[in-house]
Amino acid sequence: MPAIGDVARLAGVSKSTASRALTGRGYVAEETRSRVERAASEIGYIASPAAASLVTGRTKNVGVVIPFVNGWFFGEVLEGIERALLAAGYDLTLYNVAPSGPERARVFDFFLARARVDAVIAVGVDLDGGELAKLDRRDTSVVCLGGRAAGVARISVDDRAVGQLAAEHLLHLGHTRIAHLAGAGAAARPLSVQGERRHGFLDALAAAGLAPGGRADVSECAMTMPGGYVAALQLLGRPGPRPTAVVATCDEVAFGILRAAERLGISVPGDLSVIGIDGHEYAEMFGLTTIEQDPADQGRLAVDVVLRLLGEASVPDPLPDSGAPLPTRLVVRASTARPAR
Amino acid sequence: MPAIGDVARLAGVSKSTASRALTGRGYVAEETRSRVERAASEIGYIASPAAASLVTGRTKNVGVVIPFVNGWFFGEVLEGIERALLAAGYDLTLYNVAPSGPERARVFDFFLARARVDAVIAVGVDLDGGELAKLDRRDTSVVCLGGRAAGVARISVDDRAVGQLAAEHLLHLGHTRIAHLAGAGAAARPLSVQGERRHGFLDALAAAGLAPGGRADVSECAMTMPGGYVAALQLLGRPGPRPTAVVATCDEVAFGILRAAERLGISVPGDLSVIGIDGHEYAEMFGLTTIEQDPADQGRLAVDVVLRLLGEASVPDPLPDSGAPLPTRLVVRASTARPAR
DNA sequence: CTGAAAGCGCTTACAG
DNA sequence: CTGAAAGCGCTTACAG
């Protein structure tokens, strides 16, 4: 493998000058620079990241901590992050770990402690004080997407407003018996995505005078299609008055509800309206009314923030304030309608 | 950050001895080793990977080249790879690039050329000679999962046998008008996963005396649920005799077929049998007959092979021969039955 | 604007 | 079994 000395020799300069020419740091005569660049590309020179990072302390590598890879939202986010990092010349190191457990501790105590990454993007996980302190010790920048951490930039839609809007859409259509299939942990962790959505749902019902405990029915399920399916079989299959509409905590749960309704012979939207949240790529095929967000773009945005934290000059400056919620869009399809009289 | 010199001082030994004690290479008195280890953990020392790799040439980092992250098979594989690498103390660097295009070239010419990874696992992509040569120049080990590359270890099920088995299941039930929704590119690239499955399907029909061009109907679609949905609407909606059974190139396409059948009022399995391939986590919920494989385990296996190529002694030796196809399993559910007479 | 030298933090022959 | 020294391939003050 050619080293910088080979480039220098070929270009007839010192290693210092070759380095300055190639990294763009420090003064180099224009003529010299192009000569060095030509020499480098001629022999296929690429600087060793290990050697460079040993002296600069920078690795051009960003870690992504993410609880799932399978799952539409997470997959989209990851692809968005990856595209943006590649474009910026950064590597992406993946840490796919469960929200809690020994593996997560190992990632923070060993993998991230090796200081191999310049920054961490935490997707859908909250970081506690100890974890933040460990990252801070190594000067690792942090951005949250979905989850939260004290004093850390955060990319997210306003999930409470989204939950509220979903319920309001159904109220506006005239529904009064509206159920909510919330994500597991919604009640226990009110600041989680599913917790916020549930909160928004309850707010909307309360504002309409439909206090929960009265007609509203909130249960929790895994945020997957089978999760929604099983929960909907219980919700829709039991005796007594059925809700005429359901807010699903996400589109995958909504797909499960549609499937359960089909199985139970409940027609959608004739007997039941269903609204999801996310804008899953399958939503159109299922004719699902939903509130769209753009997770891939959120991933891109997280990278923009990270690069800015790392002082990359080339990043466009006017980013949306990381405190400001990202856009969402109500898309009405065939799964919601006025209730049957 | 503590450096190895700090550990050495605290333990009262030289840096050389500290290094030998910590890496386990070379002779160190047992008593010395434990003293060094205690000193290291006391001050929270972790060796700088940049410095270590500069001298050893090893990075403890594996690159994964993968065309999609979203998509059940790929997500499962990626999670399986990640778990196994973390357990071995390796980082995973993600290169999520389209099968062709400038980004792919950039990954091989720039990112992988930086020699930041010890090995590459190529998932669902074929590597050409030029790409292999580039990796070889940097002494990067390679393993293929799904895709192929000349002279490279390969982890895969026998996709031809799988396609054949799927068709045989339907033949065995008594179907004679059997269609196949193949994955895009199946005919053009016969060695691709979708190409092999198509080949197996045609073999089975030919063996049963049902030559294609006669009754068999093979069309291609994107290997996604909407892909299967759109193609199935065409296949099942057009006038003329309908097939009584369909082999889907993967479960996601099968789900799309089920959805299309529902929309067209075609009952499954009464009027139409559908079999998928993969063992998608949603297959049970959809009552889909399928041929299961275990992509997460394939990911784990790919890591085992990689670690062995890298000479990691701790890897269990008796791995399945990488040439031998991996196990699959026919799981019969409610979506297939005898044809109506 | 350019070069010689030091140093980033490790590991590895080489002596002893 | 242990230590002193060299060196991996860069970048960065520091002189000039």
Structure description:
The structure is a homodimer of 341-residue chains. The first copy, chain A, is an alpha/beta fold and 341 residues long. Chain A has 3 domains: 44 residues, 434 Repressor (Amino-terminal Domain) (Orthogonal Bundle); 110 residues, 3-Layer(aba) Sandwich (Rossmann fold), CATH 3.40.50; 134 residues, Rossmann fold. The first copy, chain A, contains 12 helices and 11 strands. A 6-stranded mixed beta sheet of chain A has the order 7-6-8-9-10-11, sandwiched between helices. Chain A has a 5-stranded parallel beta sheet with strand order 2-1-3-4-5, sandwiched between helices. In chain A, strand 8, helix 11 and strand 9 form a beta-alpha-beta unit. In chain A, helix 1 packs across helix 2 and helix 5 crosses helix 12. The longest helix of chain A is centred in the N-terminal third of the chain and has 16 residues. The first copy, chain A, is elongated and about 85 Å long. The interface between A and B is large, with 56 and 56 residues. Chain A binds a DNA duplex (16 and 16 nucleotides) through helix 2 and helix 4.
